[in-house]
């Protein structure tokens, strides 16, 4: 009986330690204000223990922002907003979330 309990405990702890990736990354850029709003959908049971660790913003292929987090906005998503003063019409914006 003890061996089973230990094995089950190990499996549960192992499963909880694996991270799950975000299910969606949405972004909206306002050309007038130069604000980029990022919403990363990431459903978690506890936003302080399991969260999006980093958001990376690239402008025309060049990394311009890397922001690291210690918790998530809430149990459903990570929200962030950035001012991109160098972005202009025709530029290519990329957002990565880990």
Per DSSP, the total helix count is 1
What is the number of strand segments?
6
Secondary-structure element order, N to C: HEEEEEE
**What is the C-alpha radius of gyration, as a whole number of Å?**
18 Å
- For the termini, the CA-CA separation is 40 Å
Average the pLDDT over all residues and give the rounded result: 84
The amount of beta strand, in percent, is: 35-45%
Class from secondary-structure proportions: alpha+beta
Order of strands across the main sheet: 1-2-5
- Helix content class: 10-25%
Q: Could you name the ranges where pLDDT drops below 50 across 5 or more consecutive residues?
A: 1-17
Which sheet architecture does the biggest sheet show? 3 strands, antiparallel
Draw up the topology in text.
Layout: H1 2-17, E1 24-30, E2 35-41, E3 54-59, E4 62-68, E5 77-83, E6 93-97
Antiparallel strand pairs: 1-2, 2-5, 3-4, 3-6
Please tell me about this protein's structure.
- This protein is α+β, with helices and mostly antiparallel strands and 98 residues long.
- The chain contains 1 helix and 6 strands.
- The protein has one helix at 2-17; strands at residues 24-30, 35-41, 54-59, 62-68, 77-83, 93-97.
- It has a 3-stranded antiparallel sheet with strand order 1-2-5, with no helix packed on it. It has a 3-stranded antiparallel sheet with strand order 4-3-6, with no helix packed on it.
- The longest helix is centred in the N-terminal third of the chain and has 16 residues, at 2-17.
- It starts with a helix and ends with a strand.
